[in-house]
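ENTRY TYPE: paired fold submission
RECORD: A
CONTENT: sequence, then structure tokens
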Amino acid sequence: MSTPNKDIEKVEVSIKWDPSPHGEAPNDLDIIAATYPVEEPYGDPAYLVHFDSRAPDGTITLNRDSRTGQGLGFDEVMTLELDRLSESYARVVVGVAIQQRDGRKTFGEIENTGVQILEGYTTLSEDDFSAVGTATAAIVAEFVRDESGVWQFHDTVRGFDGDPESFAATMGGRAFGA
């Protein structure tokens, strides 16, 4: 669909965090994106993109994955090419989940967490997860395609308490959605 409206085309979601103290289980945060079809924008996701996966059409990819938070700058980066995403999708929800395999860990227990969402050189959103310090996962962005085909960005950080699998299954539901 061609439209004269300028919309969001290509977005980069980046997260950072500090490694765990020596001798403790690693801090492992993961970006998760879920796509929702036009027919059921609040139903089950059509597909998920996270570590070890990508969108079937290559429009959503995890460019950098960290299991420890070690290194400089952002530890994980995901690119969403919304302008290339099929018109059969109406919504994309992006979240961040903390791996819970070594015991329950919350954002408040991990030092220097942060998320940044960019479109080109424009910062759409930045957050440090302090408002959801007791959560184990959080929605960080929602992209919704309107009737004319233009993608709209909804800036949001909403916490969730549970493991990454249960978060991924429910992150796009009406309880979280706009």
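RECORD: B
CONTENT: sequence, then structure tokens
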Amino acid sequence: MYQYYVAEEKKNDVHPFFVYSISVASDQESSGFFVRNEDISFPYHGQWAEDELPCIMLSFPKGFQVDLEDEKGKYYIYEDIRDHKPLTYAFFNEIRDSIKKVTKPLRFSAHDADAMKEQKPSVRISQDAMHDLSKSWIFSKYGLVIHGK
């Protein structure tokens, strides 16, 4: 998937997509979180670009569903995940913190209706990936300019 997006020419026969579930199991708890690809839309001359930038999202819910029942019937509430899945939460934070150490926020400019406008998605990128992406087909096609090389 990485090679598809950083290639200098677009390959039309490839449609990259994946979802991974990372399971955490111990004697105390069993849980997990997701890693899946997402897309970042960006403007191109007053409309949304036909293509989107890829990113990988690491997700873990903040709430834990607790099923309850009273005289009015069954219902559920959400409680803090840290109280119910402390080991998984700690592992998720460790991975997140490790990613933050080797990446920086992605910043790039795209052609808005009248001028280049800085885009600030909530995405982090490594220095090497930033370099590769700046030379990719998608940056060339849309005249995108990466910041912070």
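NOTES ON RECORD B: The first helix runs from residue 2 to 6. The mean pLDDT is 85.
STATUS: closed
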